Amino acid sequence: MNRTTSAVVLALCLLLATTATAIGKSIRGNPSAETLRASAGGSTIRAEGGSDTLIGGPAVDKLFGEGGHDKITGGEGDDRIDGGTGDDKLKGDGGNDTVLGQDGHDKLWGGLGNDQLLGGGGPDKIYGDAGDDTIVGNGGPDYVDGGPGNDTLTNDEGQDTMIGGEGDDLIYANGENRVTRVDCGPGRDTVVLHPLDDPHHGDGDLKRQQTGMIVGCEIVLRQPTPHVANRGVKRYARVWSNRTLKGTNLDDRLYGGHGSNRIFGRKGRDKIYGDASHTSGGPRANKQRDELHGGPGADTIMGGQKGHKAIWGDSGSDYIQGGRGSNTISGGLGDDTIRVLGNGRNLIRGNAGDDKIEAFGHGTMVIDCGSGKDVVVYGTKRPRTRNCERIINSWSKSRR
Fold first, then answer.
1. What number of CA atoms fall less than 13 Å from residue 261's CA on the CB side?
2. How many CB atoms lie within 10 A of CB 157?
3. Which of 48, 68, 128, 202 has the greatest CB tally within 10 Å of its CB?
4. Three-class SS of residue 154?
């Protein structure tokens, strides 16, 4: 074998070795820039140093860019992609992928599927694309766009811009520096604001909502203040919007807007208010209808000032105060206290339990106490009653 033939054979051997390494089950690159492809059956690829291109196959792949400015595409399987250090471009492509940006100024795309994307340190741009994605901005001022689907977006640190996109999204604005902007987009979306540790800050997050930094979000929540046990959320409906608010299983405070509200306390000892201000709203408020549900637990339900109130205490020993207009009230299970001040048409059902019903309004009062040992106390106008064990005129009693 002459020198020329030996060189050709050596070159072919090196080429075959490189091909075998680049397309295989377990691939480890070198410090130079290279293109590494996964096999059809799934691969684990570690690029080492260099600005590399990693391409996944149809199966489940694990792709690690490590050092360098890498370009990584996952393929069709449920892949795990880790960019490592450097300014990387990471695409999940098909499948339910997990994409980690790590350090650097990264760009992440989820692609099709229900993906999990984590930005890491540095200012990143993250796009969920189609599917119900979970995205965390992490450190740095990030730009996060959930895209189509019911996405969950979270910012941990930095002044992020968070775009919900199409779908019913849940957005957590948790960063200590607050978000720069939250745009929920089309769909029925919920934004959860960071708790205000400093009492001097007041309702700063709500002011952001009013000044346009939080837009297009149907439900706005505020997380509980830290170190307070069993505290739920504060939830506000926007002014003059018809909204459905739902509490948690903790002790919530739920405030309706001036529009027609449907509020569900769920479990816990909740405080529910039919309208946000109790005193304002103007003539439009007289035409609004609120539907308030206490849920399980000993709840406090306040009808507010104007409009028609339909109130259900549900289970638990509740305190229910109707609005100043017309009320339809059902105490539900438990020993309830129901106070009616309405000047309109009022229908009150005590239901089960030993209830106390106070009828002090000047409108029409029809009361069905239901089962249990019930007491009705009224003022100047006697109500029509049924199934009530005791009926007391508070005015005549005070004159004795």
1. 34
2. 16
3. 128
4. strand
Radius of gyration over alpha carbons of the chain, in Å? Answer: 31
Taking Cα atoms as reference points, which of 129, 104, 124, 105 lies closest to residue 116? 129
Tokens (6 digits) for 288: 């609004």
pLDDT digits (tens, 9 = 90+) for 57-97: 999 999 999 889 999 999 999 999 999 999 999 999 999 99
Please give the pLDDT value at position 151: 93
> What is the model's pLDDT at position 61?
95
DSSP H or E stretch at residue 54 = strand 53-55
pLDDT band of residue 240 (cuts 50, 70, 90) is very low
280, 281, 282, 287: CA torsion to nearest 10: -130
- For residue 92, the one-letter residue type is G
What's the CA gap between 54 and 64, in Å, rounded?
A: 8
Rounded Cα–Cα distance for residues 241 and 9 (Å): 78
Token pair of 111 as six digits = 């692609």
Q: Among 166, 163, 123, 118, which residue's Cα sits nearest to residue 145?
A: 163
Burial (CB count within 10 angstroms: exposed 0-12, middle 13-18, buried 19+), residue 25:
exposed
Which of 356, 354, 343 lies closest to 391, judged by CA?
356
Tokens for 59? 């199966």
Asked if residue 306 has pLDDT above 80, the reply is no
How many CB atoms are located within 10 Å of the residue 279 CB? Answer: 9
Q: How far is CA 341 from CA 155, 232, 249, in A?
A: 46, 29, 30
| Token pair listed for 176 | 């200590």
Please state, in angstroms and rounded to a whole number, the distance separating the CA atoms of residues 55 and 109: 14
* Per-domain boundaries in the chain: 25-91, 224-400
Is the Cβ–Cβ distance between 65 and 47 less than 8 Å? yes
What three-state secondary structure class fits 221? Answer: strand
253-257, Cβ contacts within 8 angstroms, sequence gap of 24 or more: 256/290, 256/292, 256/304
Residue 207, amino acid: K
How many angstroms separate the CA atoms of 352 and 56, rounded? 64
Identify the pLDDT of residue 206: 46
| CA gap 386, 220 in Å, rounded | 42
Q: How many CB atoms lie within 10 A of CB 70?
A: 28
